[in-house]
Specification:
The complex is a heterodimer of chains A (514) and B (299). With 514 residues, chain A is α/β, with parallel strands linked by helices. Helix content of chain A is 29%, strand content 20%. In chain A, helix 3 packs across helix 5, helix 4 packs antiparallel against helix 5 and helix 6 runs parallel beside helix 14. The radius of gyration of chain A is 28 Å and the shape is globular. Chain B is built from 11 helices and 9 strands. Chain B has 299 residues and is of the alpha/beta class. Classes of the chains: A alpha/beta (514), B alpha/beta (299). Strand 1 of chain A pairs parallel with strand 2 of chain B, so a sheet runs across the interface.
Chain lengths: 514, 299
């Protein structure tokens, strides 16, 4: 049936026939076509997520569609919805009007929808081949996910007894509830991914054996070697390295820290350690000491603010000289004044001070353990990713590395050309490009609690967000609305171009020809 | 907001109508019928819409249409309403749809008569500022400086555009308002208000005409918006001929008129003095309007 033919209802009928037999689409010289351009959020997203598209699906409350779009780039939105540092909102065009869209909350909502609505028993087809993944952190899990959904049997080897890598042991409970990770892992297990715990690749199982037993191997063993300070007293009792401290707490252990805690370092691990220490029983006071200024801190500014709000004392421009010990236990730290000069740090030993404490947490950074590469005697290409390659980074970056590795591996195993990962348009849609004159989608001026309302605040920036302006301004009623999204009825579209001109998101262009 | 209510069931125009691509009049009548329908009868005087609505037995509107001669829109509308009342169908809204020719020039005496008798009809003038259907001849609604087919280059329309709103206000009719297609919410609100009032109601709708104005068909809504933003076509309503009220004001100062003129070929070869003259004329009219509208009603 032609969609434009409508019945004229009595009593307004008057014996006439609808003019819809007149196919005015034949007059058309230009055709409105959707053309998606890059939005600032997608451009800034570490996962290259198609953020406006899934926001639009959430706005229509079409959760399966939102998950489908999301999972193209990010299979663990519940995880990233908790821990991502949201680079996406930094340049959000909505922020120029009132308040940025809270993208992470919507992402989290999609993640929980997925966790609640996953149908168990749907084991992926695992006949195409076998791949081993070393390391069960976000990079390994993401790679395993994409290989499993593409029909490969995946075995993940994990050196510790806990699956999840840095997400399980490094990230504190207050940032990522353990149940979220456990539910994600339950889904992966249900998809047919095998997990082998307490088995370190290169030690408990030979790399050569993995290469012979499996079709391919992905290395994502992370960065777990804590950097040493090389100062006196570092071996004393009560001195922790951040990762040891965090993983002990995350496993449910008690670090027996009490009294005053001093954290040394200015990265995200330092902030996580300080905020975790603050939550330990018996801890009265937590100080964080960083050798440079606040502006130079590598930690996420929002996390620093959160730590400060919770009562962590921040001390800058102080370099630890020695850890003062008494009977083999740390009782204080000696600091020197220190600042960044043109040729490195300038230390002033005349301006030193001491700080007494019972626990010291050294968060000076981590390094990957490259020794695994020494065992490789293969000539085949090697796939590695995550912190092992990039050095300590974030969960989204690791997930992206796992995804790229999975698709590179797939291309390798199936003999297809490598997908073009870098093909993204350079120009992103700026605030000035948008056409907000029709004043659509501008009503909700503050953050909303309901995910679909928050998603409705998205301006679309370069992709259709079903605002309806094309429908509103079409003189020919040639825009059909079905299931909340819009399509052009080319039987009647005369190609005037009002829709493309008025589209607030600039997601339409007029293309030549019918 | 109109865009929140995208119920296709409410639409009363039918795809396949004969309007040119980007027709402002088609858009205006779409909003009009949507706001007033479905119990609606339309009296259609000779105008673009006589063609757009289709030749019988085809129709582009889901309501009865009564075609009538050019000068008679007001009288035919009056007769239709009285006839419906006599038959006990007084709840049907009668809308007279006329172009600027059928309102400003040829239809003015019948319009004036119907307004003076305070007939219970809504008279909607969709103003595309010339006789577009017959080949773009100058009408008294054509603005100063515009070129038409009866005033080709180097000629241009001389004299002011007739101020139809003042004429209607002078009749003391219950309700008169201006509206345009870039502001569908404003237009719908005015039409709904008009429907709730008994007596003669007049709506003046600016509807851009891409072939007649020499504008891009895609620019229809944009031009209509610019007309309001420059003050060329202010949006206001008049109750009982005396109570003037703005319904839309720019938060900042008005845009310069050239923003509006530059997008239309009918103003293309207008020299600087004429643009200045038109801007001055506009400023005078704006000053006059602001005097009519009390400070509290400048919205």
């Amino acid at each position: 049936m032609l969609s434009g033919v409508e019945k004229i209802k009595a009593p307004y009928f008057c014996g006439a026939s609808p003019i819809s037999v007149n196919k005015t689409g034949e007059w058309r010289l230009l055709t409105p076509t959707r053309r998606e351009s890059l939005s600032p959020c997608s451009s800034d997203c570490l996962l290259e997520g198609e953020i406006p598209l899934w926001l639009e699906a959430v706005k229509r409350e079409s959760w399966p569609e939102a998950w489908q779009i999301m999972s193209r780039n990010n299979p663990f939105p519940a995880l990233t919805g908790h821990v991502c540092y949201q680079s996406c909102t930094a340049n959000c065009n909505r922020g120029r009007l009132d308040e940025e869209v809270d993208i992470r909350e919507v992402e989290k909502a999609i993640g929980y929808w997925r966790l609640d609505n996953y149908e168990p028993g749907g084991k992926a087809v695992t006949s195409k081949g076998k791949v081993a993944v070393a390391g069960s952190g976000p990079a390994g899990l993401s790679c395993a996910y994409y290989l499993a959904v593409n029909g490969y049997a995946v075995t993940v080897f994990e050196k510790s007894a806990v699956i999840g890598g840095m997400a399980a042991l490094g990230i504190p409970e207050y940032r990522l509830p353990r149940t979220v990770l456990q539910r994600e892992l339950a889904i992966l297990e249900d998809m047919g991914i095998d997990f082998v715990t307490a088995c370190e690749v290169g030690k408990d199982v030979e790399v050569a054996r993995l290469y012979s037993e499996y079709d391919h191997l992905f290395l994502a063993t992370g960065a777990w070697l804590s950097r040493r300070a090389g100062i006196k007293g570092e071996e004393a009792e009560g001195v922790w390295y951040a990762l040891d401290f965090l993983s002990l707490v995350n496993r449910g252990g008690d670090p027996e820290s009490g009294g005053t805690v001093v954290v040394i370092g200015g990265g995200n691990a330092a902030i996580d350690s300080a905020r975790t220490a603050l939550r330990q029983p018996g801890v009265d006071h937590v100080s964080l000491v960083y050798r440079r200024s606040r502006a130079e801190m590598p930690a996420e500014p929002s996390e620093v603010e959160a730590a400060e709000d919770e009562g962590v004392e921040l001390i800058f421009n102080a370099l630890p000289r020695e850890i003062i010990t008494k009977n083999g236990a740390a009782v204080g730290i000696g600091f020197d004044y220190c600042r960044t000069g043109l040729e490195g740090l300038i230390v002033d030993r005349n301006r030193s001070f001491e700080k007494s404490c019972s626990t010291v947490i050294m968060a000076l950074g981590q390094d990957p353990d490259y020794s695994i590469f020494g065992q490789l005697k293969e000539t085949r290409p090697l796939y590695a990713g995550g912190d092992l390659v990039s050095g300590p980074a974030t969960v989204p970056e690791a997930i992206r590395a796992g995804r790229l590795a999975a698709f590179s591996l797939l291309a390798d195993l199936e003999g297809t050309p490598l997908p073009d990962f870098g093909a993204r348009p350079l120009k992103k849609v700026s605030f000035e490009d948008l056409n907000l004159a029709a004043k659509v989608n501008l009503q909700l001026q503050q953050k909303q609690t309901l995910p679909f309302e928050e998603a409705a605040r998205c301006l679309g920036c370069g992709s259709c967000n079903s605002c309806g302006v094309c429908y509103l301004f079409c003189p020919d009623l040639a825009v059909d609305r079905s299931n909340g999204s819009y399509e052009f009825n080319l039987d009647y579209c005369k190609g005037c171009g009002i829709c493309a001109e008025e589209c607030p998101a600039r997601a339409l262009v007029m293309e030549g020809g019918v | 907001m109109l865009v929140d209510d995208l119920n296709r069931e409410r639409e009363m125009i039918i795809s396949g109508h004969n309007a040119c691509p980007g027709c402002g009049a088609a858009l205006a009548v779409r909003y009009l019928t949507r706001a007033l329908g479905p119990n609606l009868a339309i009296v259609l005087t000779a105008s673009c819409w006589s063609i757009i609505a289709g030749a019988p037995p085809l129709t582009a509107l889901k309501c009865p249409i009564l075609h009538c001669p050019f000068p008679s829109a007001g009288s035919v509308g009056s007769g239709l309403k009285r006839g419906l009342e006599a038959k006990g169908k007084g709840d049907t809204t009668v809308v007279v749809l006329a172009g600027d020719g059928g309102t400003f020039d040829i239809g003015l005496q019948a319009l004036s008569g119907a307004a003076q008798r305070n007939e219970d009809i809504i008279f909607v003038c969709y103003d595309n500022e010339a006789y577009m259907n017959t080949g773009m001849q100058t009408s008294s609604a054509t603005p100063f400086g515009a070129r038409t087919n009866t005033a080709p280059y180097p000629l241009f329309k001389e004299g002011r555009k007739k101020d139809i709103m003042q004429i209607m206000a002078a009749h003391g009719i219950p309700y008169a308002a201006t509206a345009t297609v870039a502001f569908p919410d404003d237009m719908e609100a005015k039409l709904k208000k008009a429907q709730s009032i008994t007596g003669f109601r007049f709506i003046h709708v600016l509807s851009p005409c891409p072939p007649g104005w020499g504008s891009e068909s895609a620019d229809t809504v944009h031009l209509s918006r610019l007309a309001v933003q420059t003050g060329f076509f202010p949006l206001y309503e008049i109750h009982n001929g005396v109570d003037w009220k703005m319904t839309w004001m720019t938060d900042k100062s008005r845009l310069p008129l050239s923003a509006y003129l530059d997008r239309q070929r009918r103003f293309k070869q207008m020299d600087k003095e004429k643009i200045v003259a038109l801007q001055e004329e506009l400023d005078d009219e704006w000053y006059f309007l602001m005097n009519k509208v009390g400070p509290a009603d400048r919205c």
